[in-house]
Structure formats: structure tokens, C-alpha cells
């Protein structure tokens, strides 16, 4: 099991992820898709990446707005796994924006 990160480590990781913010023991990013179906396509691709990583975000879909929240529940807080998946979500979001 991955160990939780302290506040300094979390702050350092968040500096590399400017679209993410901390909310307690999770990090969050909200994206606005050009259409509802584009948002669903984004979610599907993130779901595949999450399966590969064996680390699954909480996902909230509100029409074109998709919010991803990451926390390592089994560790009781934020771990490197959360930031690794956040980077992967950022890459996927960038690819979707270019389409």
C-alpha cells in the first residue's frame, strides 16, 4: 500500500498540476467538455486509464462539466498514485481538447 504524503509533498505535487486543487484528503479538477457526449467520451478514456493503474477516481458529470476527484481511500489520504493518475487525466484532457 502506498504511504500518504505530507502537506509539503502535496504542495510540491500540486505546483506541477495547476488545474488541480486540494480539498481535504483529495485533489479535484473540473473540466468543461464541448458537448455532453464529448464529456462522456472523456470519462470513458479516463476510466480505461484508471483500470490500467488500478486506481479509480470519483467522477461527477453535470451536463458538460466533468469533475474528477482523487484520493487513495485505502491509505486514508493522498498518495503518489493520486498525482500519477492526475497527470494521466491531464494528458487525456489535452488530447480531447485537440480533437
TrEMBL record:
Catalytic activity: (4aS,6R)-4a-hydroxy-L-erythro-5,6,7,8-tetrahydrobiopterin = (6R)-L-erythro-6,7-dihydrobiopterin + H2O
Domain of life: Bacteria
Enzyme class: lyase
GO molecular function annotations of the record: 4-alpha-hydroxytetrahydrobiopterin dehydratase activity
Xref: InterPro entries: PCD_sf (IPR036428), Pterin_deHydtase (IPR001533)
Record-level GO BP terms: tetrahydrobiopterin biosynthetic process
The protein's Enzyme Commission number: 4.2.1.96
UniProt xrefs under Pfam families: Pterin_4a
Classification via Gene3D superfamilies: Transcriptional coactivator/pterin dehydratase (3.30.1360.20)
Keywords: Lyase
Regions annotated as coiled coil: none
SUPFAM superfamilies: PCD-like (SSF55248)
PANTHER family for this protein: PTERIN-4-ALPHA-CARBINOLAMINE DEHYDRATASE
Family assignment from sequence similarity: Belongs to the pterin-4-alpha-carbinolamine dehydratase family.
Name under which the protein is recorded: Putative pterin-4-alpha-carbinolamine dehydratase
Organism of this sequence: Actinomadura rudentiformis
Lineage, highest ranks first: Bacteria, Bacillati, Actinomycetota, Actinomycetes, Streptosporangiales
